[in-house]
Amino acid sequence: MKKDVIFTVPSYFRDDMDIMGYRFGKGEKSCAVLGALRGDEVQQLYVCARLVAYLREVEREGGMMPGKSVLVVPTAISLSMNAGSRLWAPENTDINRCFPGDAEGSTTDRIAGALFDKLKAYHYGVQLTSFYQPGSFVPHVRMMETGRQNPELGCEFGLPYVYVRVPRISDQATLNYCWQQAGTQAYSLYAGKTQEIDEAAAEQTLRAIIRFLNGRGIIRSEAMQEQKSMVITNGDILSVTSKSSGLLRRVKYAGAHVRRGEQLAFILNPLDGSVREVLKTPATGMLFFIQDGPFITEHSPVFQVVAT
Amino acid sequence: MAILKEITSIASVSLAIGENWTVRRCRYRSDDGAGGRLCIATGIHGDEKTGQLIAYDVARRVKNEPHHLHGTLDIYPMLNPLGLDLGKRTLPSSTQLDMNRSFPGSPEGTVMEIICHHILEDMKGADLVLDIHACPQIAAEIYGARLHVHEAEAMIEETRALCPEVIWVLPDKPAYNATLTGSLMRAGTKAIGLEADSRTEGTQRASDQVVSGIFCKMKEMGMWSGETVAPPASVPVMHGARDVARVTCTRPGMYVPVECIGEQVEAGDVLGVIIDALEGETVETVVAPAGGLVFTQRRYSCVYPGTLIARLFRKERA
To answer: Which residues of A touch B96 (CB under 8 A)?
Structure first.
């Protein structure tokens, strides 16, 4: 294992922020894995840290395949993680809206630019990312429909779903979009939670990355059972949206199989406890996403269901 | 002749506990059948408060001289009221999303997307939309208009009567498409982003300058028959990186500005210093890389390498 400083952001009264990269193997730049790009992506950092520890053992045991190399960048935003800010705190900006970056631009642009320069050289790219709304997902692979996406390859992670999403206009400055445009087979992995560690989801995500690296002939480690993936698109996901606001009391959680009409959550009047709304699933299937905040606004997508 | 005044909630979403996020529009319409429509939007970033005074001053003048209005004037004084309350640029929730990167929105999306969708739908079809910004906490700016490079040719002449000190033609960036002005232009509605003078916050002078330009523009549009300033014969136009020198610092520290916003500087003139209070040293002196007009200058604040200190309109391009 080699430790590289990919980029340093010098700071005034705080310690300099070094973006660290952990390299395994030698030769072709096979796969890059990126963890936290936002200051609250704790689960994403944790999965990467676990991956670094795992690959260290694989390399020690001679499991890196000749001529292949892997780069793991656990976090590019430690300064904000320490300060408890989701965004890049000094400029109040989202690094994942600044790609491909600019070496002469703002600090955020420079971070994105330095990262992208390193990452775009890799054949496969994996970003552990989070949703912009607080909530929990069934761990899955996601990619944008750019014309360069390869969902079949995404099935090699062996997670339950491979979600091909139509990009929005604002997605064009994200890492996943720019990575694909630059020729990397790029995948985003949703590792369950964001702001806290979910051991089961972290383990599932870690095993998915290891499975992918094995399947692509980049590492050789113990075989792991593969789950057959289902490729889904925007049209396969049904959203359960609140018509009322208030306190959200969930009775079902991400990953649960639900039958059409089953109760998922109650929205309570936050002052008198009366039930304002009962949220039910419109179809039989798996709960793909749930919002996990205590408050809910009107018109809020609370659940996403993948119908079976 | 009278005007009709009507306040409408154009978007409203119920928050968790006894409150709605409501975007309100005040419409002033003449009863003479004139068809022009101008929209004035402010406060898409909650920390930009100058627009409040501008919206108030425009409304006050229209109410004082109602017989001079011909057509429909729609004022949206605050698009992000939660942000105003907390002094936050972004939406103050766990998402911390920038509303001006969330257009065109969606009628079936998240709260933010729904609000953005309704704002856009309400403004569509206007003859012109002005999106007014000003962020004096971070940087001082002179009064300017911002246009996108693909629309500049058609919009520069439209902008002149607003009397900005400069027109800045921005280079192409994907983020533009998700802004209010970008989404309106894509939808076929003309829109211009204005940066009010933010040398000092909330001053009458800053408001007067923009308001004067708005009435001048309304006169040009045939919507105002009262007294206005004459439109300038021309306004300096800056095209992206070719005409604009972007000055950044290379060292971290506290930036102490040498005030020169709105002034012409020469190459080598000092724009400020970066200090290190622990060591008691100046770690960097930031100088102008070229002669020109300083139209943006950062305030006294903590900086990192790459932090924008100033923007200059290069003298040789002026």
So the answer is: 86-87, 94
Contact assignment for A170 to B101 by CB distance below 8 Å: yes
Question: Does residue A134 share a domain with residue A251?
Answer: no
Residue B246 has pLDDT above 70, yes or no: yes
What pLDDT digit, counting tens, does each position of B107-122 carry? 888 888 999 999 999 9
A155 to chain B, closest Cα gap in Å: 28
Rounded to 5 degrees, φ, ψ at B237 are -115, 125
- Each as own residue / partner, the long-range contacts of residues A14-21 (CB below 8 Å, 24 or more positions apart, any chain) are A14/A79, A17/A78, A17/A79, A19/A73, A19/A75, A19/A76, A19/A78, A19/A111, A19/A114, A19/A115, A20/A73, A20/A74, A21/A71, A21/A72, A21/A73, A21/A118
* Best mutation target, A79, A107, A172, A241, to test chain B (most B CBs within 10 A): A107
State mean pLDDT over B167-190: 91
Termini Cα distance of chain A: 44
A270–B102: do the CB atoms touch at under 8 Å? no
The boundaries of the domain holding residue A11 are: 2-228
Is A87 in Cβ contact with B90 (below 8 Å)? yes
Report, at the CATH architecture level, how domain B243-317 is classified.
Answer: Beta Barrel (2.40)
Q: What is the DSSP letter of B107?
A: T
State the Cα–Cα distance between residues A268 and B14, nearest whole angstrom: 13
Decide if A299 and B97 are in contact by the 8 Å CB cutoff. no
**Nearest CB to B13; choose among A134, A298, A301:** A298
From the list B31, B12, B39, the residue with the least C-alpha distance to B111 is B12
Residue A216: per-residue pLDDT: 96
SS3 content of chain B, % helix, strand, coil (to 5): 25, 35, 40
Identity of residue A191: A
* pLDDT more than 90, % of chain B: 77
**Does residue B299 sit at the A interface (CB-CB below 8 Å)?**
no
Question: Tokens 């009322």 identify what position?
Answer: A244
If asked whether residues A122 and A258 sit together in one domain, one would say no
pLDDT at A56 over 80: yes
Q: In whole angstroms, give the CA distance from residue B231 to residue B216.
A: 6
Q: What is the pLDDT of residues B1-19, one digit of tens each?
A: 689 999 999 999 999 998 9
Token look-up 């911002």 returns: B146
Cross-chain Cβ contact B175/A239 below 8 Å? no
pLDDT of residue B135: 75
CATH superfamily of B3-235: Zn peptidases (3.40.630.10)
The domain boundary residue, chosen from A196, A228, A260:
A228
Cβ count within 10 A of residue B151: 20
Question: How many domains is chain A built from?
Answer: 2
Pairing of strands B264-265, B20-30: unpaired
CA A4/CA A184 separation, integer angstroms:
21
The backbone region for B216, taken as left when phi is positive above 0, alpha when psi lies in -120 to 50, beta otherwise, is alpha
CA–CA distance, B110 with A222 (Å, rounded to integer): 43
Number of helices (H), then strands (E), belonging to chain A: the values are 6, 18
Nearest to A243 by CA among A170, A164, A296: A296
B188/A contact by beta carbon, under 8 A: no
